[in-house]
Amino acid sequence: MSLGPRLDLRQSQSLVMTPQLQQAIKLLALTNVELEAYIGEELDRNPLLDTGADEDRGGPEPEAPPAAASDEAGVDQIVAGGEGTAESPLDVDYTAETFHHDSSSDSGGSSGAAGEATDFDSFAAAEASLAETLVEQAVAILSGVRLMIARHLIDLIDDAGYLTGSVEDVAERLDACPIEVEQVLGVIQGFEPCGVGARTLGECLMIQAREADRCDPAMACLLEHLDLLARGDLATLKRLCGVDQEDITDMIRELRSYNPKPGLKYGGGSAQAVLADVFVSRGRGGAWRVELNTATLPRVLVDRSYHAELSRTGTKATKTFLSDCLTSANWLIKALDQRANTIVKVATELVKQQQAFFEKGVHHLRPLTLRAIAEEIGMHESTVSRVTSNKYLQCERGLFELRYFFTSAIQATEGGDAVSASAVRDRIARLIAAEPAHDTLSDDKLVDLLRAEGFDIARRTVAKYREAMSIGSSVARRRAKLLEAAA
User: Of 49, 184, 316, 481, which one has the greatest count of Cβ atoms within 10 A?
Assistant: First the structure.
């Protein structure tokens, strides 16, 4: 074969991931809260984007953009049509009647408006961590070398309030006397919260028993044999502690009032409320209606008057920059429109497939896969996966993640219809909750009961579902009932 330069003509197909397409795909996976943060970054970068705040304050309104793209256009259609470089106006006016919905989300006031309700949580001071609380107490009563030892010990206390290192290691590391380190640890164990600085569960409960003036020899003996208490061996405990049934019952009741992880009450941070992305409610005639939670969706417009003004007086470089900003703004608004349409389309089909759940409850949840939804709405499975990721649905039965409705199938006996794994888990939980007080249902017994109800399920599957729901074995539940009866 001769070596030399030559020209070849080849024809091939390839998918080009343009920046606009990447942006549309990225927006699909974002939650409404994440989307708001993303829009904030875009507002800082693009001077032509506007939130419509001037309109709420009575100022000039940005020029109304042209009509939005078709509702049927989505990420899949962009990929198929190769619309990665389109420059047509694609911005959407979310104030139009098309996007207005009278829903429960509308009653909370306008988002971002001047009349928005005051967020009192923003005025709350940050909660002090466990370490900060302990250091504050140590500074108040210790000084010099002892304060230095206390600070080092506090650094070794985990979030639950337990000391993770040994006194000997601390003494060697600080070149201090082990007796003095032990004494400083004793001081820390007297701090709030009660029980902090313990090295074992028994020591933690012992500190709290001393604080409550209940650390008598019988209680000390009980705390030294917590393994027997965990096994429910009350007869041996009564013999070792030298108490009768009434005394052991009172001691167990006292232990239940103690906190085995005292440090967890500090530094937990404020709870973040989960906001619904989609509302599902009954419409006229009993049909189910699906709508977006518009209260959490950011409002974005293109300020065309500002663009026209700068284009008339700006330099060539300015006009080029503005052209890029206008194209970027148009694509962002189109991507937001497509995201909203895609979420509604997926949620609507999901409600259609799981209609029995919304009407009758979790026991009627059907097996469902992402592929089944994708085929019904004509989208790719990966698009449905992005749409349902970290999105929540609010309905009459509560708040659910969209992924909750996608479950594997459990075959039914005697050729019946397959049932959802979530429905089986719910039935297992109900059977265990209703089991007799004097007896517990083993996994084998649960299998027999489920098969009698038409669920073809193996024992290992029952054990897996039970453990996933944090439900103990029949032996563990029997011990817990014995302790509960004793207390």
Answer: 184
